[in-house]
Design goal:
Number of strands: 10
Helix content: 55-70%
Structural class: mainly alpha
Low-confidence stretches: 1-11, 395-402
Number of domains: 2
Strand content: 5-15%
Mean pLDDT: 91
Length: about 675
């Protein structure tokens, strides 16, 4: 292999240890931890880390190729496994133990599947499979979720040395230099960045967690490593300016990114570019570069423990509310930050250094691979075995009686407010409650642009002469079991028209999954209105989640269409939202159900906007059915009513509770049908 010939000055500049990179590593981890803990809204720390990993690994591999003409895969993988596997195993197993002791038993097996994925370095693809929203704040985050980025890096570590050796060999054979390597890396960067932008708009979880949309960040670091000898010749004044501009670009663009920004897309290019500029400027070792502030005892130390800090902070943050028995407070966020740092320091000295500096593991690569493999296998085996541990919940035959309990008049709601202990009946229903969602009616996914009548959209008495249309979003779909029973009881055909996150009123909605205006909702709504005109129903029931986008003009536009159809109109006010995953909360508060009961002022969103919709509905002759008496009493909205769990998640009611509300809504529907 051709070798880089450097002058003495270049050799001095091309240092083996880069204090500025150590400082940048510290900056990156502080960006990640403070953002996750909700202390500073700054993004891009992981992207900076990807660039650093690419540069450091690229530098090591290229230096070895220069020196020996090849890469020792056993030594390379042994170094990686000694560096990463022991700490990973400690955190994976410790997190599993704490999750078993404190977190929701209902989520434990899924959490252990996440732990297995984390141990085997494919957590990013599990998150793609489950369609995880990285910025969701609804209590469903996995304590292993942060392993997605480590999975990408470890997948990179497996492939990078092989691909780089082959590419360098081909480049030497064809061009007698490394031009092909540079062209290959440039193509990878361009292609991956293109996929990042394209897939962010089409499938955000795939874009965020997919290896194919992140590899350009790692490849950027390798390209810098390839060009380091050339960059080392840069004028020192220019190099200093570039490094300072790089730091400004990294921090500035990271602060401009918000949770509303489509990520990764093009937005992460700012922090990536800034990190590249810092590294490029530092190649020339300028005296007045950004290293003057990045190199200090604090950043040096934080850089040393950064891996452990990253591993510990997220599971502590996610499990903290379960351990302390309350929602996390702002001061708790600093406690999480401090505790995770202390654990990172302990793990650095007790675990990481022992494996990293062990003479036998260093000098005999297969021993290093064996040690890392044993740690990985241990973590994987522990989480796999934990999936078969029986859930710590009461089970009884009472759970089989699916029709027991639920709404029995407003008095049943008032009694539920006073309930403390979760009954054996409710406990036995808990394991199945997350899946107790409506069995009847259809709902269209986010990407569907047109309502199409399907067999499963027709429920109730399918041969009934009269018909009812229920239109709305998932808060309309959740009533499916109730309307199926009502339709059969009243001999009425019921047609459900529902689309996730899409109000029937004409509002411009920004979809959080898509991070853009929900244009699919607009086109779907138009087609649904046309279908209503074709169906000519006797009654139209309108219900949906109240949104901050509500406008009187938008509600007016929709209700004009409904009124013009000639149908009788019924408007059901939105159901309360507990704001936390109810089955999980109940599973961890069996002896104090009241801890899971939100107050009415927190569970009932946007009261002023609810009033706007209701006023418009009444103006167009709709009968208004206020849902709140069936859910709340004495300023509290209980989550268990007469042994029936009310919600299957943080927002939607269970099918069982919906069915128990048939007597509550039947009188209103009978009047509408008579009208």
């Amino acid at each position: 292999m051709t070798r880089h010939r450097s002058t003495a000055a270049q050799t001095e500049r091309l240092r083996k240890y880069r204090p500025d990179i150590q400082g940048l590593r510290a900056v990156a981890i502080m960006m990640v931890v403070t953002m996750h803990c909700g202390i500073i809204d700054i993004h891009g720390g992981v992207d900076v880390s990807f660039v650093l990993s690419g540069f450091l690994i690229g530098s090591q591999l290229l230096a070895e190729i220069d020196k020996t003409g090849k890469v020792s895969l056993s030594k390379f993988w042994a170094r990686r496994m000694r560096r990463l596997a022991p700490g990973m195993a400690v955190v994976v197993i410790t997190t599993a133990i704490v999750a078993w002791l404190y977190a929701s038993p209902l989520r434990f097996r899924d959490t252990m599947r996440d732990g297995l994925s984390a141990a085997l370095s494919f957590m990013n693809w599990r998150l793609v499979e489950t369609g995880t929203d990285y910025f969701a704040n609804n209590g469903t985050q996995s304590p292993y979720q942060h392993f997605w980025s480590l999975g990408i890096e470890e997948q990179f570590y497996v492939a990078a040395p092989i691909v780089l050796v082959v590419t360098v060999w081909l480049s030497r054979r064809l061009f007698r230099n490394r031009a092909l390597v540079a062209l290959f890396l440039t193509a990878v960067i361009a292609g991956s960045l293109y996929l990042s932008v394209k897939q962010t708009a089409e499938n955000q979880p795939l874009a965020y967690f997919g290896t194919q949309t992140r590899i350009w960040e790692l490849a950027s670091g390798i390209l810098l490593a390839l060009g380091a000898p050339l960059l080392s010749r840069m004028n020192q004044g220019l190099a200093a300016v570039i490094s300072w501009l790089g730091l400004a670009t990294t921090i500035g663009t990271a602060l401009l990114i918000t949770k509303e920004t489509p990520l990764p897309g093009y937005a992460v290019a700012g922090p990536v570019l800034g990190a590249c500029m810092i590294i490029a400027g530092g190649c020339a070792n300028p005296r007045l570069g950004v290293e003057t502030i990045l190199h200090n005892p604090v950043t040096d130390y934080v850089g040393n423990v950064s891996y452990g800090w990253y591993l510990w902070h997220w599971p502590i943050l996610i499990l903290w509310p379960f351990v302390v028995g309350r929602d996390i407070t702002y001061s708790d966020r600093f406690r999480v930050l401090s505790l995770s740092f202390i654990l990172a320091v302990l793990m650095y000295y007790v675990v990481e250094l022992r494996f990293r500096n062990n003479a036998q593991l260093v000098t005999t690569p297969w021993k290093g691979i064996f040690a890392g493999g044993t740690a990985t296998a241990g973590a994987a085996a522990a989480t796999a075995c934990a999936m078969f541990i029986p859930l710590n919940l009461v089970t009884s035959a009472s759970a089989a009686n699916g029709d027991a309990g639920g709404y029995a008049g407003e008095a049943s709601v008032r009694r539920a407010v006073l309930q403390k202990e979760l009954s054996a009946t409710a406990q036995s229903a808990l394991p199945g409650s997350p899946k107790d969602m409506t069995h009847y009616g259809c709902i269209d996914n986010t990407d569907v642009k047109k309502f199409v009548m399907r067999d499963n959209c027709v429920i109730g008495d399918k041969q009934g002469k009269n018909s009812i249309v229920v239109i709305g979003d998932s808060h309309a779909w959740q009533w499916g079991d109730a309307f199926d029973a009502l339709g059969k009881s009243l001999h009425v055909k019921v047609v459900t028209m529902a689309k996730g996150g899409c109000s029937p009123e004409v509002y411009a909605i920004k979809n959080p999954e898509l991070n853009r205006e929900y244009s699919e909702c607009d086109s779907w709504r138009t087609s649904a209105f046309k279908s209503i005109g074709d169906l000519k129903p006797d009654v139209i029931v309108v219900t949906s989640r109240i949104r901050r986008e509500v406008t009187e003009a938008g509600a007016e536009q929709a209700f004009k269409v409904f009124e013009a159809s000639g149908a009788q109109l019924v408007y059901i006010t939105d159901t309360p939202q507990p704001g936390r995953n109810v089955p999980d909360c109940l599973a961890t508060h069996i002896h104090d159900v009241s801890a899971c009961n939100p107050t009415e002022d927190k569970a009932v969103e946007y009261r002023d906007l609810r009033a706007v919709e209701q006023k418009v509905a009444e103006r167009h002759g709709a009968r208004v059915l206020d849902s709140l008496p069936a859910f709340c009493a004495d300023s509290v909205c209980p989550t268990v009513i007469a042994d029936r769990i009310v919600y299957f998640d943080a927002s939607h009611m269970t099918a069982g509770y919906a069915k128990s509300l048939v007597p509550f809504i039947k009188p209103t529907l009978k009047k509408a049908l008579a009208g």
